[in-house]
Amino acid sequence: MASTNKIKAGIIGGAGYTGGETLRLLLNHPQIEVAFTQSRSQEGKPVIEIHTDLIGDTELRFTSDYLQPADVLFLCLSHGESKKLLAEHPFDSKIRIIDLGNDFRLDEKAAHREFVYGLPEFQRDKIKSAKNVANPGCFATTIQLGLLPLAKAGLLGEVHTTGITGSTGAGQKLQETTQFTWRANNISAYKTLTHQHLGEINKTLKTLQPGFSEAVNFIPWRGDFTRGIFVTSVLNCSLSAEEVKKLYHDYYNLHPFSHVVDEMIDIKQVVNTNKCLIYIEKIGKKLAIHSVADNLIKGASGQAIQNMNLMMGLEETLGLKLKGSVF
Ligand SMILES: NC(=O)c1ccc[n+]([C@@H]2O[C@H](COP(=O)([O-])OP(=O)(O)OC[C@H]3O[C@@H](n4cnc5c(N)ncnc54)[C@H](OP(=O)(O)O)[C@@H]3O)[C@@H](O)[C@H]2O)c1
């Protein structure tokens, strides 16, 4: 039975992938009571009919009503839907809002609210005092975590990035490229140099390194797995490998989820966790920075809860000490 002094959280778009992951994490968060989880398509159904793994963990039913008492709302909606929702229902200004979509990442002053971009490794102090947070994209998170220390040191030049993502990155709606027959034993590129996360990536990098005007040339790939992102960014750098590693260790020293490691990384190390692992190589003049994260946890729902913890004055890691899949 939930205690009354817990923070009341509501999820809007609770039947989707990030909605489900947010619910899984919130049900295990010691300071949270899940007040409701909303879905248009699943209204009235027990949550466990959709998120079947949650059997025994919750008796909630999906509701169509999102105007119920809550201290914090997680918006887990498709592109454009969060803006529409807040235009129709402004909500009490005391209710904190964390949007997992991309509606407010660039348009921070919208819907009568001011949103703070929620990448704690970039601006944790700003998030602590934020009322509304625009949670970063999954590729945007993994790419930025690989580049933030270089940008802070003013060392970024033109960057060439490739990144591969699992099928959950595309949401639960069936598409040709997410069905098994297409995805299994297959890889392809998409949105070459035009991915929608480039805007937020460039905005952060320009804030950390004023005057940065080079391109981040990003080619995303679709991978033959369900979750996780592996990114490699390559650029020229005059520092030695040891100097770069020191820069990264110093930058991430006080950030509990981002780790610079000494061996090549892989997706299984981070899937189901809120961690990002970073591995640095220097070959000749070229620096290669590899970074991995779970698109649904550090790239979405885990980071949203990390942001909520910061906004609510809770310990940053609360409810996020998760067990990885490993094998
Ligand atoms: N998947 C990822 O790895 C990931 C990572 C970071 C950020 N994000 C972002 O998080 C948001 C949610 O992503 P997701 O992967 O959870 O998507 P999803 O699985 O497709 O779920 C989105 C939910 O939004 C609801 N919805 C409400 N209005 C809608 C509309 N007009 N059209 C379509 N759906 C509508 C749908 O539920 P009902 O119809 O039942 O209401 C749907 O279940 C997106 O903006 C996405 O870009 C996703």
Please outline what is shown here.
The chain has 327 residues and is α/β, with parallel strands linked by helices. The chain has 9 helices and 15 strands.
Describe this structure in words.
With 327 residues, this protein is an alpha/beta fold. The chain has two domains: 7-114, Rossmann fold, CATH 3.40.50.720; 138-295, Dihydrodipicolinate Reductase, domain 2, CATH 3.30.360. It contains nine helices and 15 strands. The chain has helices at residues 17-27, 47-50, 81-88, 120-128, 138-152, 180-183, 198-208, 241-252, 297-311; strands spanning 7-12, 32-38, 62-63, 72-75, 96-99, 109-110, 113-117, 132-134, 159-165, 188-189, 216-222, 229-236, 258-261, 276-283, 286-293. The strands form two sheets. The protein has an eight-stranded mixed sheet with strand order 3-2-1-4-5-8-7-6. Helix 1 links the parallel strand 1 and strand 2. Helix 4 (120-128) runs parallel beside helix 9 and helix 5 packs parallel to helix 7 (198-208). The structure holds NADP nicotinamide-adenine-dinucleotide phosphate. NADP nicotinamide-adenine-dinucleotide phosphate binds next to helix 1 and helix 9.
Q: What is the element layout, followed by pairings?
A:
Blueprint: E1 7-12, H1 17-27, E2 32-38, H2 47-50, E3 62-63, E4 72-75, H3 81-88, E5 96-99, E6 109-110, E7 113-117, H4 120-128, E8 132-134, H5 138-152, E9 159-165, H6 180-183, E10 188-189, H7 198-208, E11 216-222, E12 229-236, H8 241-252, E13 258-261, E14 276-283, E15 286-293, H9 297-311
Helix pairs in contact: 1-9, 4-9, 5-7
